[in-house]
Design brief:
heterodimer, A: alpha/beta, seven-stranded mixed beta sheet, globular, B: alpha/beta, 12 strands, about 35% helix, about 15% strand, oxidoreductase activity (chain B)
Chain lengths: ~375, ~325
């Protein structure tokens, strides 16, 4: 399957061609592969990516669960159960699920704030995610933090801080430890399109490349850094092209195709595990919502483009259609999967809402490890 | 007595801990083949290899963050900053991520951040900082300030074995000092082999009855000199070296103030926003009734550290200034 895709690579792409890159049109049936100074288009043979039925059921469940968990949290927010704010990943579910499902149980995931799908794919139980959002004692931070500022140590998921970009060095460091421990593990992390402008991102990419840390970095390019459009964020045609500058391989892919994400990320992780060093993958999606629940995004988002992506590149609709078209699952099986995800999310919410709040007397406890 | 230098004590601690525990590794700019700006790790890379003594690219945020990540994943990194001043580049990694990780219930971050601190001759505004107050207000960081070779070695070992992030201030001015070069109270031998110095235990450098002179870091020298001058004038000053700022030996401070009734806090860092203010408030809150005089502080003036020798001399709290403050306190 892999050999087939790689052999299909075309002639190097000229920079004039990349200057007018249109993510919607140009990534529809191919992806860009960057090696050294050359970028090449690689056609996608969708038949080659076809999963077996158990795999398809698992991926479908995770995708559907991601949306169900976030929709349930959204309504819980509107009912006043979520202190603070909430960031959701609508439009990005396939990128999170497709990438994190490539990690082995013992490997670390370093997620960002829009990677609910990655959390679920790595095994973070929905009830724990909900408890965290609700500021309950049973959540992973026991009420110390909320929103997607969480990790889950039992499944080797780190938490994050609000300072965008900082997590890429942390992920590089976990990969560094894997290298020193010679445990054959790779690490996966994410950064948004906005985060790539931060110095931390650059420092970590450079260090990881110099030392060949086993790391895969996915740029979740959802086309808006809060309210700033891409044209005000960076001047290169694609962020993946920066891979050349670090001396690592790069990919520019449509991140709404869960099977493609999985294929490219699993290849990057395999390379990392073999000692090949980091890979930079730009996964393009459209943020199908505001930055946070408070954001009136219709003020600044190009709604025509928004509707186009919503109709044609909704990752969950896409996967449903694919599975039917390639006769992997029946429409009934897909409907049952959606119903199951919805039920699981709502049960998790009900359970989490019954958990106690943290004990205020313990507010100053646990600052230091004893 | 072996009486090694402060620098040799630091090197020995690192070397022995690396031999003892293979999870310990070092990262910093120029520390590999070059042995670091101050040669603390000279010869380390040749012995321990390129994987455990890592020349980092010029990127404090990147390599500090990476060291924190490695600590989360089971390693024991020791980060060297070329000068304490440059830690600002990595500030968010330390105060936002490493310090809070345990409180947010995601596990400890066992990392040591070595900060070559305080003035050296004409270091200027960007090579002379006393960084303690930058970190003092952040929960989750331990802050230590060894003034002797004995403490330097024992506290660095302790820091490496601690499960928390430790801000390890070491003093450039002291690197070449042997205990024999110092006042008798600081001529503390560094024993052969393994020992640690627990955090949170102040050391009384000299017993006294009339007033307490509380200090740490480079200022221990001025403190001892000033106490000696006062002794000739018939004033008995108790000199205490705090050694650790977080955790702080509150008991030792309160005990001494209750005994003498008068307190002078001395540190090389600026007075404004300094650690001395916190200690003064602690005394005022807890043992006010034992005070026989207002609490005095001596620290640097409210400006950056200047380079030109006469300016630098005017900036750094010198013995004469301490003596003056002690006299006033004694006479109150």
């Amino acid at each position: 399957m892999r050999a087939k895709i790689q052999n299909a690579a075309s002639e190097p792409v000229r920079s004039e061609e990349l200057a007018g890159l249109d993510f919607f049109r140009d990534l529809a049936d191919r992806y860009l592969s960057i090696e050294g100074l050359e970028a090449r288009w690689v056609p996608i043979q969708r038949e080659d990516l076809r999963p077996g039925k158990p795999d398809a059921l698992r991926l479908h469940h995770l995708l559907s669960l991601t949306r169900a968990v976030e929709e349930t949290l959204d309504s819980a927010f509107r009912s006043g159960h979520v202190p603070g704010t909430a960031f959701f990943s609508r439009g990005n579910e396939a990128a999170g699920v497709g990438s994190a499902s490539c990690l082995r149980e013992e490997e670390w995931l370093v997620p960002m704030h829009r990677n609910c799908g990655a959390h679920l794919a790595k095994g973070h139980p929905p009830v724990s995610i909900m408890a965290h959002f609700f500021g309950r004692a049973g959540g992973p931070s026991e009420g110390r933090d909320g929103n997607f500022h969480m990790g889950y140590r039992p499944k080797k998921i780190t938490q994050l801080i609000s300072h965008i970009g900082t997590m890429v060095p942390i992920a590089a460091g976990i990969a560094w430890a894997a290298k020193l421990q010679r445990n054959g593990q790779a690490v996966l992390t994410y950064i948004g399109d906005g985060g790539t402008s931060s110095g931390d991102f650059h420092e970590a990419m450079n260090f990881a490349a110099v030392r060949k840390f086993p790391l895969a970095v996915v740029i979740d390019n959802n086309q808006y850094a809060y309210k700033t459009p891409l044209s005000d964020q960076y001047a290169c045609p694609a962020l993946a092209l920066r891979a050349s500058g670090y001396g690592v391989p790069g990919f520019l892919i449509d991140g709404t195709d869960v099977l493609l994400v999985r294929e490219v990320v699993s290849r990057a992780l395999e390379r990392a595990r073999r000692g090949g060093g980091p890979t930079l993958i730009e996964s393009v999606t459209m943020r199908l919502g505001g930055h946070s629940v408070y954001d009136r995004f219709t003020d600044y988002v190009d709604m025509e483009k928004f509707k186009l992506w919503q109709e044609k590149r909704d990752p969950i609709k896409r996967f449903d259609q694919y599975l039917i078209e390639y006769e992997v699952l029946t429409p009934e099986e897909i409907a049952a999967s959606h119903a199951r995800a919805r039920r699981e999310a709502e049960e998790a919410r009900d359970t989490a809402l019954k958990l106690p709040f943290p004990d205020p007397a313990k507010v100053a406890e646990g600052v230091f490890a004893e | 007595m072996s009486l090694i230098t402060y620098r040799e004590a630091l090197s020995a601690a690192l070397w022995e801990e690396m031999e003892r525990d293979e999870r310990v590794f070092l990262v910093g700019e120029d520390i590999g083949l070059g042995g670091g700006a101050f040669y603390i790790t000279k010869g380390f890379q040749q012995h321990f290899g390129r994987d455990r003594v890592v020349d980092a690219p010029l990127s404090e945020a990147g390599f500090t963050g990476a060291a924190i990540g490695a600590a989360l994943a089971g390693m024991r990194p020791v980060v060297e900053y070329q000068f304490a001043d440059f830690v600002t580049e990595a500030f968010k990694m330390i105060v936002d991520f490493a310090a809070g990780n345990h409180y947010r219930r995601m596990g400890p971050v066992p990392i040591v951040l070595r900060l070559p601190s305080a003035a050296l001759v004409s270091g200027g505004p960007y090579h002379s900082v006393n960084p303690e107050s930058w970190f003092f207000g952040t929960p989750g960081l331990k802050i230590v300030a060894p003034a002797t070779a004995y403490d330097a070695k024992g506290m660095l070992k302790q820091a490496i074995r601690d499960d928390n992030p430790v801000i390890f201030m070491e003093y450039k001015k002291f690197y070449n000092y042997r205990p024999a070069d110092l006042p008798p109270q600081l001529q503390i031998d560094v024993p052969e082999g393994d020992y640690t110095v627990p955090f949170g235990q102040a050391r009384t450098l000299r017993e006294g009855e009339d007033l307490t002179l509380l200090t740490f870091g480079t200022s221990v020298l001025e403190a001892l000199e000033a106490a000696q001058v006062l002794e000739r004038e018939g004033v008995s000053a108790e000199v205490i070296d705090l050694r650790t700022l977080v955790p702080m030996d509150k008991e030792a401070i309160l005990r001494s103030v209750k005994k003498t009734g008068k307190l002078l806090i001395l540190h090389e860092a600026r007075k404004r926003g300094g650690v001395g203010g916190e200690i003064a408030a602690l005394i005022a809150e807890e043992v006010f009734e034992h005070l026989d005089a207002p609490i005095r502080r001596v620290g640097a003036p409210d400006c950056p550290v200047p380079l030109s020798p006469p300016l630098e001399k005017a900036y750094l709290p010198g013995t004469a200034q301490v003596v003056g403050a002690l006299r006033e306190l004694a006479a109150f």
